[in-house]
Design a protein that fits this description.
A: 564 residues; FAD/NAD(P)-binding domain; five-stranded antiparallel beta sheet; 23% helix; B: mainly alpha; 7 helices; globular
Chain lengths: 564, 185
């Protein structure tokens, strides 16, 4: 196959797909390298149309399977209906210096097939807080730099949401929101009246009302089957497979090469730029080299960092662009340790119809603009209410028989839940590095992951547990059951950092356009680039940063014929 | 309703966290424990007593007995599987003691009374041991969880007892509720 391209994109997930789309639309011949197998929209969604009773164990995996996959079987949404979009533990070893459950989906589309789809914007304060409150370096960009690219992405992928005018969670270009149900509306008014807080219908990457741009992608209005992670026959939620990759393909400029493990980026000492990517064919183990004028690294936060660490040369013996040991450090994640639920009397003449594939968001209300708690950073709360099934406790002694059957098949009391998504602090000690002696089956050094919680995370958890309970109990909920499950980091699937952005090349890897300070034709636009983690879900920010960076790269190539 | 919500609901039903593939132990399943037809018959009879055919299908229509045997063999730890199987033996012994015959040959009301008594015991056991920790679960807690889960995830349970909308279309946040069955998941 052709080995010379204008652009190479490493990874085909949520940010890689966006890089491919934008670069191809700008007329650049683009090669997307994907380490896993091909997954074509619809054709390769084997469980998409199965009913629950079509699965022997109704969606559970056998015990032996889970025992063979103790890590990945804990991932959110992982079961017999979705497991083909996750790796198997034995295939992809890494070293946990501290407990860190690294969730990976190696296929064309990556984790965009199985993501959570929450797509709220960061606020200006989220970008400013680390420097202002003293827990990180300044972001080299602010909200105004990203806002037009948020809009660009939102319009294309389809994000639903209500316009609220909230400073801590700016409005975007939204399709109609999901309605709140009766108890969610109750929570919304209690939070507004008693707490001056916001309870907002989920800003989720669902096409709630297909526009022309979605029809052009072959996508239709979401039918609310709520089986998203199997892959959606309607393209109702955003994935690379349903959206950006087919769009890029239509330009005629796209080549996707599955089974291509990116080994390293090749640095040309003469031009002082990257000249291409060394690839190991996953099946044949053959070594290949592909060349390009610009390289986008979108392999997922930790894998992008791994590739840069493994890209050594005479000029960069410690990894590409890494003169200062910043590469691999300041890895953050989102703290998902705590959640709670409670039940509430009343509202029994109200129900909903039928499934809502989104949750409500309570935007961060802590340390907004100034330090007002005993911890640094903020947290977002996700929440929802539903009618639970009838409880044996509600049945007045009926335990078996016709009356029991009649009762247990009716909706029971209303319940609501809340769980936190907390910002973590960028620290040099939370890091990843290459194992000196362990390699994977393609000869790539394994990643050593040394990332953990700290006291700040514990204090934030305590605050959420108290505040969540206070909100639920003020709203009239009882039996509030709140827990800190102490789950290891990684299960949040929001790992960030490793090659952070910053204005100062001495303390950061990437500049304001996501270029390596020291090797400008390499852009890193996935989670690895994050200077801080914020508290909102990061995927749509990666998409916006990727689109921005890709257009920057294309403009450079048009103007100079190379990246200046 | 997604699976997580369903499992939470079943935990509320039975006062005990759903026991299944999520609870891992290292030991291997003895091959001999895999679903014996005799057990399927007994599970079916227990399931039908809990969820009988009325104007809608019952547990036997939904082949719940086979599901209970299949699921427990594939997903349970050897310890829990042993508890479940011992429970069947115990139930038969009780039937003999009370009615002079095995559970299968008891009358409908006799079966109901036997299971209601076991259910009350299981709930006391669950209450005493807390929702998720402590001593091993009562066999009838395990059994009832699987019966409920198996029934409401079967085709008959989902489509003819619960309300099933495979492709729902627009979501409505607020609709009046007038006593209908819940949405299938």
């Amino acid at each position: 196959m052709e080995t010379q391209y204008d652009a190479i994109v490493i990874g085909s997930g949520i940010s890689g797909g966006w890089a491919a789309k934008e670069l191809c639309e700008q007329g650049l011949k683009t090669l997307v390298l994907e380490r896993g197998r091909d997954v074509q929209h619809i054709k390769d969604y084997p469980t998409m149309a199965l009913r629950r009773w079509d699965f022997d164990l109704r969606g559970d995996n056998p015990r032996a399977w889970n025992e063979a996959n103790p890590l990945i079987s804990r991932a959110a949404g992982y079961d017999a209906t979705t497991k083909h979009f996750f790796v198997e533990d034995a295939d992809h070893p890494y070293v946990q210096e501290k407990p860190f459950l690294w969730v990976r989906g190696y296929q064309v589309g990556g984790k965009s097939l199985i993501w959570g789809r929450a797509s709220a914007r960061w606020s200006p304060m989220d970008f400013e807080a680390p420097a202002r409150l003293g827990y990180g370096i300044p972001w080299p960009i602010g909200y105004d730099d990203v806002a037009p690219w948020y809009a660009h992405v939102e319009k294309f992928i389809g994000v639903c949401g209500s316009r609220e005018g909230i400073a801590t969670m700016p409005d975007g270009e939204y399709l109609p929101p999901y309605e709140l149900n009766a108890v969610e509306q109750h929570l919304r008014s209690v939070l507004r009246e008693k707490f001056d807080r916001h309870y907002v219908s989920g800003r989720w990457a669902h096409v709630t009302e297909a526009q022309e741009i979605h029809r052009q992608q072959g996508r239709a209005t979401c039918r609310n089957r709520n089986l998203c992670m199997r892959g959606c026959p309607f393209g109702g939620y955003f994935s690379s497979n349903a959206s950006t990759l087919p769009w890029a393909r239509k330009t005629g400029n796209l080549t996707v090469r599955p089974f291509s493990v990116a080994h390293s980026i090749i640095y040309d000492e003469a031009t002082q730029q990257a000249s291409g990517v060394k690839v190991i064919d996953a099946n044949t183990h053959e070594e290949l080299v592909f060349s390009a004028k610009v390289i986008f690294v979108n392999a997922s936060a930790l894998n992008s960092t791994l590739i840069l660490l493994n890209s050594t040369s005479k000029r960069f013996p410690h990894g590409l662009g890494n003169d200062h040991d910043v590469l691999g450090r300041y890895v953050g994640f989102h703290n998902y340790r705590a959640g709670m639920s409670g039940e509430i009397d009343g509202f029994e003449d109200s129900y909903y119809e039928v499934y809502k594939p989104a949750e409500s968001i309570i935007p961060n209300f802590r340390n907004v603009g100034r330090q007002d708690t005993d911890f640094l950073g903020g947290y977002v709360i996700f929440s929802g209410a539903s009618r639970r099934l009838m409880d044996d406790r509600d049945m007045h002694g009926e335990a078996v028989g016709a009356n029991y059957k009649q009762a247990v098949s009716r909706p029971g009391k209303w319940t609501a839940y809340m769980y936190m998504q907390g910002e973590t602090l960028p620290k040099a000690s939370n890091h990843v590095r290459l194992s000196p002696d362990r390699r994977d089956r393609w000869g790539v050094p394994q990643l050593v992951v040394s990332v953990g919680y700290d006291d700040n995370d514990d204090r934030m958890v305590r605050d959420f547990l108290a505040e969540g309970r206070r909100m639920l109990e003020t709203a009239g909920f009882t039996h509030v059951n709140a827990t800190d499950n102490h789950q290891p980091p990684g299960l949040d699937i929001h790992e960030m950092g490793g090659a952070r952005m910053g204005a100062d090349p001495k303390t950061s890897m990437l500049n304001a356009h996501n270029q390596l300070h020291l090797c400008r034709n390499v852009y890193v636009t996935d989670g690895a680039c994050m200077t801080s983690t914020g508290s909102q879900s990061p995927s749509i920010l990666y998409m916006a940063l990727t689109a921005r960076a890709a257009n920057h790269a294309a403009a450079q190539l048009r103007r100079h014929g190379r990246i200046a | 309703m997604d699976r997580r919500e369903l499992l939470r609901a079943i935990a509320a039903w039975t006062g005990s966290a759903f026991v299944g593939a999520d609870r891992l132990l290292a030991a291997e399943l003895p091959a001999a424990a895999a679903g014996r037809p005799q057990q399927v018959v007994l599970f079916d009879e227990i399931a039908e007593t809990i969820l009988p055919r009325t104007d809608t299908p019952g547990a036997k229509d939904a082949q719940v007995g086979a599901y209970v045997a299949r699921y427990s063999a594939a997903c349970y730890t050897p310890a829990n599987l042993a508890i479940l199987h011992a429970g069947l033996v115990e139930l038969d012994a009780r039937a003999h003691q009370a009615h002079g015959t095995g559970f299968l040959r008891c009358s409908g009301p006799q079966k109901q009374a036997l299971l209601a008594a076991v259910d009350a015991e299981a709930k006391r056991h669950a209450q005493a041991s807390g929702a998720d920790h402590g001593p091993p679960p009562h066999w009838f807690t395990l059994c009832k969880q699987l019966v409920l889960f198996g029934f409401f995830t079967s085709e008959a349970g989902e489509t003819q007892v619960a309300r099933y909308r495979p492709v729902p279309g627009p979501y409505k946040g607020v609709v009046p509720y007038r006593g209908e069955t819940f949405w299938a998941w």
